[in-house]
Amino acid sequence: MEPGNDTHISEFHLLGLSEDPELQPLIFGLFLSMYLITVFGNLLIIFAISSDSHLHTPMYFFLANLSFVDICFISTTVPKMLQNIQTQSQVITYGGCITQIYFFLLFTGLDDFLLAVMAYDRCMAICHPLYYTVIMKSTYCVLLVLVSWMMSALNSLLQSLMVLWLFFCREVEVSHFFCEINHVVRLACSNTLLNDLMMYFAAVLLAGGPLAGIIYSYSKIISSILHISSAQSKYKIFSTCASHLLVVSLFYCTILGVYLSPAATQSSRASEVASVMYTVVTPMLNPFIYSLRNRDIKRALKRIVGVPVM
C-alpha cells in the first residue's frame, strides 16, 4: 500500500467479518434474519405504544424513541454489509464511509442518552412518586429527547468533519464490516492526535456521563427499595426496572468490551465480534426483553394481533 497525501480518494474497502467465500452465504442469511427481526420487533413496540392510550406515559414514550433509534442504528451498518456480500464487493465510497461514521456516532450517542433518560424516569417514578406527574410532564419528556438528539448530532457532526480533514493513503482497507471511526482514523497518513483526543473526550462525556447518570439513578432506586418493608412491593418495583437494567448491561458491557478490553484492542477479530454484539445483537434483543418482561406491552401486542386480553 503506497502512502500519499491523497484527500480525494474515492473509496474504502470493507474487509468484512470473513473473506472465506464459503462463509459468505451463511453470514448473509444470519445478518439478514437479525436485521429483519430487529426492524419488525422494534416497529411492533412502536406501534403497540402509539395505538394503546394506556401506554401514553413517559416510560413508554422513551421506549418508543429507543426502538426507533435501534432501527436506525442497525440500518446504518447492516444493509451496506448485506449489499457488499450480495454483489461480492468490498467497496464503500468515501462519502458513504463518512456518512456511515456520522450516523453510527449519532445513534450510538442517542442510545447512551436514552438509556440514561429512562433510568432517570424510573428514578423519579420510584423515589418521588407524589411529584412524578408534575416533574415528568410531556413537554419536559420531549425536551429531554430533543437535547439528546442535539448533543448526539453535535458530537457526530464534529467528529465526522474532523475525519474529513485527514489525509488518507491510497487503496485504504478497513478491517471491519462497517466504517467504525477508530478503524478509519488509524488508516490516516496524517497526524491523528486531535482526532484521538476528540474520541477520548467524547467517550468520557457522551458514554461515561450517561453511564454515571444510570448508576446514580439506580443507586437511588435501590436505596428507596431497601426502605420498603413489603416484599411484594419490592418485587413489583424491581420488575419494572429489570428490563431496562438488562438492556443497559447488554449494551454497555459489549461497547466497553470493544474500547477497553486488551483482547479487543490487540485482535481485530475480537473487536469485530464485540462490535456485532452492540450494533446488531443488542438492538435485536431489546424488543424481546421489553415485551417478554412487560405485561402492558404484552397486552398491547395481543390487542394488535386480535388475541383476547384477560
Share of helical residues: over 70%
Give the total of beta strands.
3
- Named at the architecture level, the CATH assignment is Up-down Bundle
Tally the helices.
11
- Rg over CA atoms, rounded to whole Å, is 21 Å
Provide the β-strand percentage band: under 5%
Largest beta sheet: strand ordering: 2-1-3
Following the backbone from N to C, one meets helices and strands in this order, namely: EHHEHHHEHHHHHH
CATH class: Mainly Alpha
Mean pLDDT: 85
How would you sum up this structure, described in words?
The chain is mainly alpha-helical and 310 residues long. It contains 11 helices and 3 strands; from the N terminus they run βααβαααβαααααα. A 3-stranded mixed β-sheet has the order 2-1-3. It has a single domain, classed as Rhodopsin 7-helix transmembrane proteins (Rhopdopsin 7-helix transmembrane proteins), CATH 1.20.1070.
